[in-house]
Structures are given as C-alpha cells and as structure tokens.
Design goal:
Blueprint (H helix, E strand, L loop, with lengths): L14 H15 L3 H10 L6 H8 L7 H10 L6 H12 L36 H26 L31 E5 L5 E6 L10 E6 L7 E8 L2 E8 L3 E7 L9 E4 L8 E8 L2 E8 L3 E5 L10 E4 L8 E6 L8 H7 L3
Antiparallel strand pairs: 1-12, 2-3, 4-5, 5-6, 6-7, 8-9, 9-10, 9-12, 10-11
Helix pairs in contact: 2-4, 4-5
Length: 344
C-alpha cells in the first residue's frame, strides 16, 4: 500500500487542516525541499523551494499548479485530482472574520449634566447631518459645473437625445487610452457592471481549480486586483489574497481548462494583456486582448454570477468589453453610472 493512501484530503475542513496534510505528505516522502524541487523538475514541473516552504509553514495556500507538482514529486501522483478537488473546495471558502472585541457600555446621555456637555463642533461626530448636507450640496454644485462646462464646450450627448431634463443627463468623458496601473482596480463586464472579475470555480466542475469568473464586486474582498506593466503596452493581471499571496492570470491552452484564465504563482510565466479602448452599442470600456490568442469575454455573454471569463476570437461585441476603474473601500458605482461615466 502506498504510504500516503490513508491521507484523505477530502476530509480537510480548513486551510490549516489541508496544509497539515501536505506537511505529512512531505514527511512520508522522506525528501528534502531541494530533492522535491529536483524531482518536480525531472517530471516537467516547477517547485520553488522558497514558495513551498511558505506553503508548508502555513503562510498561504498553494496555487493549483504548485500543488500538482508537489503531490507528484511526493509520489502520490495517482491522486492529484483528489488533492485538487479538496484544494478547490477550501480555496473557495470565505475568509474567517476576526472576532470583534466588546465595546464598553456608554453612559446614557441623561447622565451628563447639560451644562458640562461639550458644544458640538464641525469635527464632532455629534453633527453628522451637517456633513451629509454639505456633501449633498457639494455634489449638486459639481453636477451643475459639469453640466455648464459640457454645454459651453458643445460636448455631444448633452443633454441626451430625447431627454428634456438636463438635470438627469450624464457627461460622457473620454475613455483613457490606458487603464489605471499600480493601484487596486475593479475589472467589470460592461454588460454586467455590478459584477467584477474575481476567482471562483467552474460551474460545471469540468476543471477543478480556481479560475476567473464574474462575481458581485462587494464579495471579492479581500482579494485585490492590480495591473502590472509588462512592457510594450501590455499588462499582467495580478490577484492578491492575504492567505495565498500574489498570482497572475494565465490562459490555459489545452485540456479541461482550455480557454479559461487561471492564477499562477510564477507571474513571469503569466499571460500578457493589452487593453484597447472600445465601444459596441451602448457598451464602452476596454477590449482585453490576450497576446495574439484572442480577447477576454464572458462565456455566452451571460450576466449571471459565477459565469466564467474565457478567451475567444475577438468580435465587435459587448460581451468582450470591460470597464476598469480604481477600487475603493466602497462598493463600485451603480450600473447605470459606471457604464455612462466610461463612455468615450
């Protein structure tokens, strides 16, 4: 019997339990980190010692390709799919929410004599109403200034065709030639702007690994998406999760995961993406071209949560158009506002 046969990855119920099984698998193999690295290389894989050490120390979950190479190097290659299924289930679990310490009780307002109470100031939390009113007034003034500037400059689309109420019109600003680089961003399908590209599992489970799917933007945290300059007008799409570290999207060219985008630890082996300003009907944003292999689109043009992003032949179609905006701690703007604000 194989010495690893009694290790059951499917029974791991947490990342910590899963990594404990990986440590035990390494122990039973009797191999050092260096020997595992060399054996993986002999098998055509990549198993960096430093990355593997971080994983087995519990600092992060492994990426699927590292897990596959590690399991094979340890001599349990016949059960790679079983390990990957367990990994996919655990990686999809929401992060644990730290306990919030109890807040000491605050004495009732009546317990403080009125003559001793501090008068409210503009900085005091006792006057949130004034700040809200001030923000509303400033926002209204900004809309008025933009409207006046648009009319004065003769910007097309102001007011919108068929609209007699300029107050409801939206200024259409030119789309930047390049997306934001270096800061956290949301990449949103133009046809489903309430959703963002993030990690998830393939709905029909034909491929047991995390891939790019569309999910509600407010559910993508703590994942952080950034664009990394890859030279000659191209970028890498990098995801970062605290429990996994950084990973960059790479197009899978064959097998069950063909046409899907999968995060890889080795960012230097990831795909290069070119963001081209584009418009199709009412959809405007960027067409994301992957090397010379096609364009990123949402499978079937669907707007359902969990639909996979795929790389397909480039077409003049809204399902291949995405908006890219800097992410904030708040949820992205409403679908109507986000689509209109990025129109060229």
């Amino acid at each position: 019997m194989d010495p690893a046969d009694d290790l059951e990855p499917g029974r791991a119920d947490s990342a910590a339990a899963f990594i404990a099984l990986l440590r035990e698998l390494k122990r039973r193999s009797g191999l050092t980190y260096r020997q595992l690295e060399h054996r993986a290389a002999d098998q055509g894989g990549i198993l960096a010692r430093s990355t593997l050490a971080d994983v087995l120390a519990g600092k992060k979950l492994p990426r699927p390709e590292l897990l596959s190479d590690f399991v094979r190097a340890c001599g349990d290659g016949g059960r790679v799919d079983e390990w990957l299924r367990a990994w996919s289930r655990i990686a999809a679990q929401p992060p644990a929410v730290p306990a919030v310490p109890a807040v000491p009780a605050v004495p009732a307002a009546s317990a403080v004599p009125a003559e001793h109470a501090a008068p409210p100031t503009d900085e005091s939390p006792a006057r949130p109403g004034r700040r809200r009113r001030r923000r509303v007034l400033l926002a209204s003034a900004a809309v008025g200034v933009l409207a006046a500037a648009a009319v004065a400059a003769g910007i097309s689309g102001w007011p919108p065709e068929g609209s007699g109420d300029p107050a409801k019109a939206v200024v259409r600003e030119p789309l930047p030639a390049q997306p934001p680089v270096g800061s956290a961003v949301w990449i949103r399908p133009a046809l489903a702007p309430g959703l963002c590209l993030s990690d998830g599992v393939v709905r029909d489970h034909r491929y047991d690994s995390l891939v790019a799917v569309q999910r509600p933007c407010e559910e993508t945290a703590p994942q952080r998406t950034t664009l990394v300059n890859a030279g000659v007008g191209t970028y890498r799409i990098q995801w970062h999760r605290p429990e996994m570290g950084p990973g960059c999207l790479r197009l899978r060219g064959q097998g069950a995961g063909a046409e899907l985008l999968e995060p890889w630890d080795k960012c230097d082996l990831a795909s290069h993406f070119r963001f081209e300003p584009a418009r199709a009907g009412s959809a405007s944003g960027y067409r994301i071209r992957v090397n010379e292999q096609g364009c990123v689109g949402i499978k079937g043009g669907g707007a359902e949560t969990g639909t996979e992003a795929v790389v397909e032949p480039c077409v003049e179609d809204g399902r291949q158009i995405f908006t890219v905006t800097e992410a904030t701690e708040a949820t992205p703007a409403s679908p109507t506002a986000s689509t209109a604000s990025t129109a060229p």
